[in-house]
Design goal:
alpha/beta, 8 strands, 32% helix, globular
């Protein structure tokens, strides 16, 4: 049972449009606050998009995600899970990037997540572009490689962009495999689709044993069957979850930089996370929400709803 301090503010006590917006109306506890010792799951903002190669904007994602998250309530209406009563959760703030220097930002993120791990906090991150996942993994998986279930329309396994640029939102998991952060045989990528330049990324996946499930296979086999295989691939060992909002069809999530048509709907976007029940989750992220392309906030609302589903399965992972 969680400490009452870590309960979110109720809409019955303060209207949801009032007060300082933290993730899911949780208390803010900084990494240097003594109370951090009691936090089990920390919600973190990663306001950085210097890895973006097309439409920028995800640096503004965490702020909009926080604002829309004031509509999250105490109980999961589908599963009955009440995560805030199971574990101590807090908003532990934003990682501070250097918007003018990719390498300095990567170092800042890595050090932040190393500190998160040292404090015994399991991170749930709202991004930010997908390059954010690389330094998160550097912070969490420096001791041993981990598995990963990755929802996306792109593999993010490319070698480089623009004649040798090695660090973009299209390269994080290539680097993570090369650096020994991911065990490729325990990595599954779900929802891959769209036009391509070539098969370089897929050839790399085949060469190291990453399992790629294209969207056509996802729909042909069915969600439950695909997710059962994903759970089998990662097994019971430590696993990271990375969720790019462009996994979802842009009809339901237009606010993203590199949308691809033909994806899952918003219900399926939530359902795949519910199928993670039983996975040994050491951290998760929801990335690539870009407010300039959906000022109404609909994409961010779906994003934080996915984050709540992730929180529910993460709470279950910690309390099993």
């Amino acid at each position: 049972m969680s400490d009452p301090f870590y309960q979110p503010v109720s809409g019955f006590d303060l209207p949801r449009f009032a007060g300082v917006p933290t993730f899911m109306r949780l208390p803010h506890v900084g990494l240097d606050d003594p109370k951090i010792a009691d936090v089990q799951i920390g919600l973190i903002g990663a306001p950085w998009d210097t890895g973006t190669t097309n439409r920028p904007g995800p640096r503004h994602g965490p702020r909009q995600l926080r604002d829309l998250s004031t509509m999250i309530r105490a109980e999961n209406g589908a599963t009955g899970v009440r995560p805030f009563e199971m574990v101590n959760c807090a908003d532990i703030g934003d990682v501070a990037p250097n918007p003018a220097d990719v390498q300095d930002s990567l170092r800042r993120f890595t050090e932040f997540y190393k500190k998160v791990k040292a404090k015994g906090v399991v991170p749930l991150t709202g991004g930010g572009d997908h390059l954010c996942s690389l330094p998160i993994l550097r912070g969490l998986a420096s001791d041993a490689p981990v598995g990963m279930i990755h929802f996306d329309s792109h593999t993010d396994l490319f070698h480089s962009y623009f004649d040798g640029c090695m660090y973009t939102h299209g390269t994080p998991f290539r680097r993570a495999v090369e650096e020994g952060l991911l065990d490729p045989k325990r990595v599954v990528q779900i929802g891959i689709r769209g036009t391509t330049y070539d098969r370089e990324d897929r050839d790399f996946a085949d060469s190291v044993g990453i399992h790629v499930i294209p969207i056509e296979e996802f729909f042909k086999r069915g969600l439950e069957d695909v997710m059962a295989e994903a759970r089998e691939i990662v097994g019971d060992k430590p696993t990271y979850i990375s969720y790019d909002i462009d996994f979802v069809d842009p009809a339901f999530a237009p606010g993203t930089g590199t949308p691809e048509v033909g994806g899952p709907n918003s219900f399926q976007a939530l359902q795949v996370v519910r199928e993670l029940e039983g996975v040994n989750i050491i951290g998760a992220d929801l990335v690539e929400v870009s407010p300039p392309f959906d000022a109404s906030g609909g994409t961010a609302w779906l994003g934080v709803s996915i984050m709540f589903e992730l929180l529910c399965v993460m709470a279950g992972s910690l309390t099993r």
